[in-house]
Amino acid sequence: GQFVLLGMGGAFTEDPDDVVLIPVDADRNHTRACVLGSSVGQVLDSPRWTISPTEAVLDVIYRLQSLARSSKGAIQALDINPLVVGDGTVTAVDGVVTRMIDLERPA
User: Fold this and answer.
1) How far is residue 60's CA from residue 34's CA, in Å, rounded to a whole number?
2) 1, 48, 68, 91: least surrounded by Cβ within 10 Å?
3) CA gap 21, 25 in Å, rounded
4) Cβ(6)–Cβ(40) below 8 Å
């Protein structure tokens, strides 16, 4: 199946314990539990923020899940890197979408 992979990035990029796989077809409660139960969730929910960015990050994940479900398999991969997190906000700086048709074309 399809998944949203969420990780810390930066120096933590290579640490498999700092990523969480969330099924695209997970409901909002399961998605929230996956995020909040991860090391990413601990950072998002920490007192370092004036305004918690948790809801903004969850909104991005919900939208990615919806996009993946509605594409009916047409999207092979979607990479947002980096997703910059701030006080109550997130900003997608760069992204790449790989469509199934892109993989099926001869080089």
Assistant:
1) 14
2) 1
3) 12
4) yes
Separation of first and last alpha carbons in the chain: 27
Tokens of 3: 């998944």
* Rounded Cα gap, residues 23 and 34, in angstroms: 10
pLDDT (tens place) for every residue of the chain, 107 residues total: 899 999 887 766 666 677 899 999 999 999 999 999 998 999 999 999 999 999 999 999 999 999 999 999 899 999 999 999 999 999 999 999 999 886 666 66
CB 51 within 8 A of CB 33: no
- Provide the CB-side half-sphere exposure for 60 (13 A, CA): 22
3-state helix/strand/coil string of the chain: CCEEEEECCHHHCCCHHHEEEEECCCCHHHHHHHHHCCHHHHHHCCCCCCCCCHHHHHHHHHHHHHHHHHCCCCEEEEEECCEEEECCEEEECCEEEEEHHHHHCCC
